[in-house]
Specification:
heterodimer, A: 198 residues, alpha+beta, Alpha-Beta Plaits, 7 helices, 6 strands, B: 72 residues, mainly alpha, 0% strand, iron (chain A), metal ion binding (chain A)
């Protein structure tokens, strides 16, 4: 069975934030919450690198391990989802997540920070598929419509890949075989001179 | 005086019996309410089932992103 995965080809990401905008628009994500973010390291220096980050839908998800109300579940597609009806907004998952994926609509301590919100791999939540209530709580259910996450579909440089882990891994592997990786990639030495090593 | 003492003794017996019964009830409730082993939220087979389908739309995404592979 296919396991859904995200893979960001950092050699291609140009920090355009189209993935962030697409996500916010598709799911009508409220102010203050970003389900996806673009992180840039060495900003403005040779070797600058950007990567688009969201929930990585871990196999053994630490958020699920620490949740005191056990509101997380993993679907047959290996997508980690949660129930907003059960979430108490304690914030434990935020501290446990290595990617900073869980977000809260309000900023304060226990309980009053609101129900946790995170990337759903465009698979929404436990409500019936493509219903109004599901959209209001979790956003669009593109996976049920036979589509993939919009962030990846919108990526102009084909940096962000999403879908069947085996297929996107094969696509990335082929790219690396042909063009190299990091400073060995096409265009890097032209842009940053031959001395650059990343 | 004797009557008062008798009344006090009756009251103590009553309270003792009542207290004993309460303790038994509390113990019984504790047994009934003993927490089960923690279980993860399960929304049911319907909602945890597979949603991914390899539609033409999805195939087009793979094809477009893997064009380097197709060049060969």
């Amino acid at each position: 069975m296919a396991r859904m995965k995200f893979l960001c080809d950092a050699d291609r990401c140009i920090e355009c934030n189209a993935c962030v905008t697409a996500c916010k628009n598709e799911h009508d994500v409220p102010w203050g919450i970003n389900r996806r973010r673009v992180v840039t390291i060495n900003d403005g220096k040779p070797g600058e690198r950007s990567v688009s980050m969201a929930c990585m839908h871990c196999t053994d998800a630490p958020c699920a391990a620490v949740c005191p109300v056990d509101c997380f579940y993993t679907t047959a597609d290996a997508v980690v989802l949660h129930s907003k009806d059960l979430c108490i907004g304690c914030g434990y998952c935020f501290y446990a997540c290595p990617f900073g994926a869980p977000q809260y609509p309000r900023v304060s301590n226990f309980g009053s920070r609101g129900k946790m919100d995170k990337c759903t791999f465009c698979a929404a939540g436990p409500e019936a598929d493509s219903t109004e209530i599901e959209y209001a709580k979790y956003g669009a259910n593109r996976l049920a419509e036979g589509k993939l996450p919009l962030c990846a579909e919108m990526c102009s440089t084909k940096s962000l890949l999403a879908g069947d882990g085996e297929i996107i891994a094969a696509i990335y592997k082929e790219r690396v075989t042909q063009r190299g990786y990091g400073s060995g990639a096409w265009g890097w030495q032209t842009a940053y001179r031959e001395t650059i090593t990343v | 005086m004797q009557e008062n003492r008798q009344a006090a003794m009756n009251r103590r017996k009553f309270l003792g019996a009542f207290g004993g019964a309460s303790a038994t009830a509390v113990a019984a409730a504790a047994v009934t309410l003993a927490p089960d082993e923690a279980q993860a939220y399960d929304p049911g087979k319907e909602e945890t089932g597979t949603r991914y389908q390899e539609t033409e739309h999805v195939k087009a995404f793979y094809r477009v992103n893997g064009y380097e592979t197709l060049k060969k």
